[in-house]
Specification:
Na+/H+ antiporter like fold; about 80% helix; globular
């Protein structure tokens, strides 16, 4: 337990150093709101797909493939339950607040915070299963995420569901993995370099908006969303895994992803779809602080399954 606390705490501190850079960039006017919009698009359309494709660049293994399918099933079921709970329990008179808090309750920081932890605890297997969770996350992000933040299903079409960065990069990555296709070195190396931006840029974006935020959550809806994200969501994942008798690396990797604090994408999507960016930055930061305590506890619980 102590080892888990120290591991998680170290990575959280690293994230906050990056957040501090964004904070300073705001106060010193090094970055502007217009620049942040372009950075957001760069992360959503370029960086994250590179992370997914790079994660699937490994030798094919039938056991790992089974684990991949189990991770997909557990992730989809977990997201479905979380979405239902978010809509039933997170209510707010302010539409911008409500959609931001629902989004935050459903989507975790599974890429920027979970992947480093999964790699530290489980090695390559942790990254592989973590990337699979991220793939489902991306699909949900560009379907449910767009719907809840835009406030209308009209923004979703079959083309948007299947032709978006998350789905396309997932499809490419899985095909390359299943058929053991190795990307040429001169192409793979740039992909790795871009994938390496997956943590710093989103955290700088969060820090930029944090400079305009208060570290105080207001309203019962915010606290309900916080509990759903940090406590209920990982417990749901653990329950799903228990029901289907899944343990070991898969259980730990999935629980780490589900227990992560509010996704940095909450701030990026709030900016993109006119949500409450100030609230989202506050929410990301507060849940990240609290996750120092909650993540080690639930991850230790999943390790005992």
């Amino acid at each position: 337990m102590l080892e888990n606390i120290l591991t998680v705490g170290n990575y959280v501190l690293i994230l906050f150093v990056l957040i501090a850079v964004g904070f300073v960039c705001n106060k010193t006017k090094i970055l502007t709101n217009a620049a942040l919009k372009e950075m957001t698009n760069f992360v959503l359309y370029i960086v994250t797909p590179c992370v997914i494709i790079n994660s699937y660049q490994r030798e094919f293994d039938i056991t790992m493939l089974r684990g991949l399918l189990i991770t997909i099933a557990a992730s989809v079921l977990s997201f479905a339950i979380n979405i239902v709970l978010a809509h039933l329990l997170v209510k707010d008179k302010d539409n911008k607040r409500e959609k931001t808090l629902r989004f935050g309750a459903v989507f975790s920081n599974c890429g920027y915070m979970s992947l480093p932890l999964q790699e530290a605890m489980l090695g390559e297997a942790g990254v592989f299963y973590g990337a699979t969770y991220i793939a489902i996350f991306q699909i949900m992000l560009w379907t449910y995420g767009v719907i809840v933040m835009s406030g209308s299903v009209k923004n979703i079409s079959l083309k948007k569901i299947f032709v978006n960065p998350g789905v396309l990069s997932t499809a490419v990555g899985i095909v390359l993995y299943v058929f053991s296709v190795s990307i040429p070195f001169t192409v793979l190396e740039p992909i790795k370099y871009l994938a390496a931006l997956n943590t710093p840029i989103p955290m700088v974006i969060v820090g930029y908006y944090l400079a305009q935020a208060s570290l105080r959550l207001k309203g019962a809806s915010a606290y309900v969303s916080l509990v759903l994200r940090l406590v209920v969501s990982p417990l749901i994942m653990i329950a799903i895994l228990l029901v289907f008798g899944i343990s070991g690396d898969i259980a730990i990797a999935c629980t780490i992803a589900a227990s992560a604090p509010v996704a940095a994408a909450t701030t990026m999507f709030s900016e993109k779809f006119d949500g409450d960016t100030t609230l989202s930055a506050t929410f990301v930061s507060i849940t990240t602080i609290l996750s120092i305590i909650t993540m080690p506890l639930v991850v230790a619980l999943s390790a005992m399954i």
